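Methods: holo model generation. Sequences were used as deposited, without trimming of termini or removal of tags, and paired with ligand SMILES retrieved from the corresponding compound records. Each pair was processed once, and we did not select among multiple samples. The sequence and flavin-adenine dinucleotide SMILES for this entry were:
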Amino acid sequence: MTAPPFDALASGLDPEGSEQAEVRALVRTIVARHATPERIREYDERRAFDHDLYAALAGSGLVALDATEDGTHGGDVRDQVVVIEELAAGPTAMAVCFIVQYMGVQLLTAVGSVRQRAEVLRPLLAGESRIAFAMTEPDGGTDVARVMRTRASRTDAGHWVLNGAKMWISGPLIARHAIVVARTDPPQPSAVDGITLFLVPLDAPGVSVRELDTVAIHGLDTCEVRFDRVRLPDDAVLGERGRGFRQVLATLNRERLGAAAAALGIARGAFECGLRYAREREAFGRPIGAFQVLQHRLVDGAVAIESARGLLTRAAAAEARGERADLLSAMAKLAASEAATRIVDDGMRMMGGSGLSLEYPMQRYFRDARLYTFAPLSNEMLRNYLGERMLGLPRSF
Ligand SMILES: Cc1cc2nc3c(=O)[nH]c(=O)nc-3n(C[C@H](O)[C@H](O)[C@H](O)COP(=O)(O)OP(=O)(O)OC[C@H]3O[C@@H](n4cnc5c(N)ncnc54)[C@H](O)[C@@H]3O)c2cc1C
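and the model returned the structure below.
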């Protein structure tokens, strides 16, 4: 009897499998048609964004899941995490792009004005434009509220002037707008107060974008974005003046779920690549998967994936029901990203010289998995958070 592919086992174990099966099948069909392994490799090596794949995904309503605008397709956060997992298991950079789009959709839906929803959200949902989210600064991402130097001031003439710089921003070269987090008022009563969100057209005079050279996520640009006396109208403010960071905090749970799903997808993609190799490659007259040490590592990888999947499924279900999901989401992101980094490391060892070959995707998963050890929030900070909020220990940072 031939062994079932691990993937089949995974979907069989998925407690929410039946409800999300349709969206999973849809993404798989699109990926199989538009993102073959050869094409994924090509776009990674060319450092190019796959516009055709994005058009196919957006054209099937996958950006508009969970959006409440008229004419959208329904679905909720449980579907979104399935989309992200499936993309991350193949064209990983597209999963990163979708995490950002879902964040933009959520913020615009929650606090966008009628005009902002008509001019920015609607084309986003239709797949006609994309958005970037610019929070991290050159002086730091973890403690960003305290070190934020990007400032917007309101002039007597009734408009805003934005100055500053953002670092490591995903996708501004392929986006029409960025949601920019800027200080507008004093940090009182706490550092997260006095911060406002702005919807900034990326072609506005004074905005400059510089692509950064990174080792990972090559299918989506990562950039520095600078703002030099960028003039913005009053209605560029997204949501409430001075409460922008708090508005973002409300969406961070979703971003964390997205990151958990992306890490889970990377873990699964790498695991499947490693398992195939362990079945096919022979040494001492047997498949290398017959050696106990390698078999145990593979089993540990499968258990780590299923543990992370269980947490993610529970977290997404709690979020979809509107229940408290921050602890489960933090645990899911930790479990999935630790699973991914361990699986890619074991995979690279197990594949020997082939691990370094560009013919196999393991090296790409190995590079891409790094992102989710520190983004959107580092695993150290997640442990700090869980120590305080879950265990009731004194704040450690
Ligand atoms: C490819 C890529 C895409 C990205 N996309 C975006 C994007 O679209 N938008 C955006 O705004 N940002 C984006 N980021 C930035 C990302 O969110 C930050 O890199 C992340 O928040 C960490 O910030 P930092 O890199 O400044 O690290 P730092 O904040 O400088 O942290 C450095 C180290 O110190 C540790 N540390 C800091 N404080 C503590 C503490 N109290 N206790 C324990 N350890 C601590 C951290 O865990 C980390 O290990 C992206 C980054 C990359 C590389």
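The chain has a mean pLDDT of 94.
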